[in-house]
Predict the structure of Addiction module component, TIGR02574 family.
Amino acid sequence: MDKLLINKAMKMPPIQRVALAELLLASIDYEEGDIREAWISEVHERMKAVNEGRSTLLDFDAL
């Protein structure tokens, strides 16, 4: 895996990283359409929870 790409992605604001993850997941062809849609829905719900203060993000580097 390209460390430069990962490092750049990790510097992105959390909401942009979530959007990137969503795009990457959506690009995987072998998933069934309903499974892909369920994951996208889950990502949206998690983004909403963070934006509404119902959930918090963890710093990956601090784990």
Summary: Residues 33-51 form the longest helix (19 residues).
